[in-house]
Amino acid sequence: MKKWAAIFLFAVYVFGATDAYQLLKLPLFVKHFVKHRHEQPGISLTDFIKEHYTGEIVIDDDFKQDMQLPFKTHESECCLTAATLLPQPIEINHTIEEPVIIEYTVLNDDVPLHMVTRSIFQPPKTA
After folding, report:
1. Of 20, 21, 69, 65, nearest in space to 49 by CA
2. Helices 45-53 and 26-39: crossing angle, nearest 10°?
3. Residue 117: exposed, middle, or buried by beta-carbon count in 10 A (0-12, 13-18, 19+)?
4. b/e per residue, 63-94, with b = 16+ CB within 10 A?
5. Side-chain half-sphere exposure of 37, counting CA atoms within 13 A
6. I need a labelling partner for 45 at 20 to 30 A (CA). Which of 74, 86, 91, 101 fits?
7. Nearest 5°: CA angle at 89, between 88 and 90?
8. pTM listed for this prediction
9. How does DSSP assign the chain, residue by residue?
10. Per-residue confidence (pLDDT) for residue 105, from 0 to 100
């Protein structure tokens, strides 16, 4: 029971939040293709797809049926659309001055490194 409820809720989410609802229009696609096949017996599926999905939109007698085909239109309130406004870039002219070199002396530079760290990092001592 939980499995079917999860599948149902997932399906409701997918068909509501994405363009997957367009797949429900596939019977209209097949019906429209069959109609074109009766009118033009030599038309292939690829020719049908090229005619309806590529190139310019032709307004003819079956324009309303053409616009009901899957993935031909989309609902704007169905999916999230994000827009970002970018400001115009500005030119920054900045000259880089020569770097200042600071000389310093390190004290105790003759002490080996392992001697310095031994006094800092020691294992815990038991009392």
Report:
1. 69
2. 110
3. exposed
4. eeebeebbeeeeeeeeeeeeeeeeeeeeeeee
5. 10
6. 74
7. 115
8. 0.50
9. -HHHHHHHHHHHHHHHHSGGGGGGGHHHHHHHHHHHHHH-TT--HHHHHHHHHSSPPP--TTHHHHHTSTTSS--TTTS-------PPP-----PPPPPPP-----TTTTS-HHHHHHHHS-PPPP-
10. 65
Q: Convert the pLDDT of each residue in 72-102 to its tens digit.
A: 776 655 455 556 677 888 888 878 788 888 8
Q: Both tokens of residue 83?
A: 């827009």
Single-letter amino acid, residue 50 = K
Q: Would you say 107 and 58 are in contact if contact means Cβ atoms under 8 Å apart? A: no
Q: Are 32 and 72 in contact (CB under 8 A)?
A: no
Tokens of 4: 């079917």
**pLDDT(104) > 80:** no
Alpha-carbon distance of 90 to 21, in angstroms, equals: 45
